[in-house]
Amino acid sequence: MDSLITAAAHALAAGDPLGALHRVALRDDAAALALRGIAMAQLGDLVRAKTLLRSAARAFGPKEAVARARCIVAEAEIAFVSRDLNWPAKALDAARVTLEAHGDRVNAAHARYLEVRRLLLIGRIDNAERILADLDPGPLPAASKVVGELVAAGIAMQRLRTTAARAALDRAEHAARQAGIPGLTAEVESAYLVLNTPAARLIARGEERTLLLDEVESLLSSNVLVVDACRHGVRAPGTVISLATRPVLFALARTLAEAWPGDVPRDTLIARAFGGKHADESHRARLRVEIGRLRTLLRPLAGLSATTRGFALAPHRPVEVVVLARLVEEQHAAVLAFLIDGESWSSSALGLALGASQRTVQRALDSLAVAGKVQSFGRGRARRWTTPPMPGFATALLLPAQLPGG
To answer: Do residues 227 and 324 make contact, with C-beta atoms less than 8 angstroms apart?
Structure first.
């Protein structure tokens, strides 16, 4: 490897893409193309970066398997940043195997971290946690340790383990200072904001207040009955009753919980659950059926008592009943929550992350675009959607895995 290539590689490792380009901008050999691609990625020109890396992978000879594998890992990282979640995971895994076989532990670990971050983003937390547990960050450089700790913090946040998340971010901050790369420091600071920004609303006895993530964790582990409007279920210590696929029953449960300890008139329950403006006898008959179904499901935690004018929630134990709700509740809120990460998303990637069909997501995006809340650029498969960050909006950590009606 010649001195210019070595100097450019050191510049990239130190987070200086302009310094790297200064050394190799006019060169078209395989190594220079790869470094130029990584530099352009660091500068934010992801389309040009992907083209350069693919050219580099083709230019490397048959005996340069490690170099080609590194290009594949770099291209996978660009795909992740571009929220192109359909990139071929098998190709990344094959590249990782090649890197491990040739002793390149740093880039092999980076490939693993990319795989874990993708799994985390699409909600496969168990798989992400299992893979991360098998990685030993000890021999890795500081920059790689930052990535690993950020991934660990992300998993801990998803699990609502805020103490573990803060510890991981503290370790990431220490490693970022050692690495001396401004971009990594900024990413750690951004992750800290998630812990210090309101994540949900608490509704209890007719009053509301916002909760931080650690307060949500404390709430869900406390001795209260929680109707969770973020994950669509009813929770108490040791018991979780999911109503994610039962929107009518969840609407009834939430309405009853918001009114607790009072009751709710039948007409109000019908309007909230069925959307009917004028209740007739058929609505009342359907309400009786759905109340019966909800009573059966909630039997381990609470009963539903009939009153003169409607129904009331009656916990089996003398505990408080509260509702945990998103900060902002509006149509297509789940789509908006993913877009506020500042990255550009394709509709297919959003569908994968939300567990919804691409057609459902596209309809949501079209509706949000008409309302001026999102914007797109590009055409066809290259079309991407984004929106400016909205202060005070719910994080993706508390969203259900699937869009209602998806």
So the answer is: yes
Q: At which residue do the structure tokens 């650690």 appear?
A: 214
pTM over 0.70: yes
Query: Could you tell me which CATH class the domain 201-325 is placed in?
Result: mainly alpha
CA quadruple 402, 210, 395, 223: dihedral, nearest 10: -60
Rounded distance between C-alpha atoms, residue 260 and residue 175, angstroms: 49
Residue spans per domain, the chain: 3-195, 201-325, 333-398
User: 368-372 contacts: CB < 8 A, separation 24 or more?
Assistant: 368/332, 368/335, 368/336
Which residues 6+ apart lie within 8 Å of 90 measured at CB?
none
Q: What is the pLDDT of residues 39-91, one digit of tens each?
A: 898 888 888 998 999 999 889 988 899 999 999 999 898 888 877 777 778 89
Q: Which two tokens stand for residue 346?
A: 């394709």
Residue with tokens 């499901």: 297
Distance CA 22, CA 28 (A): 14
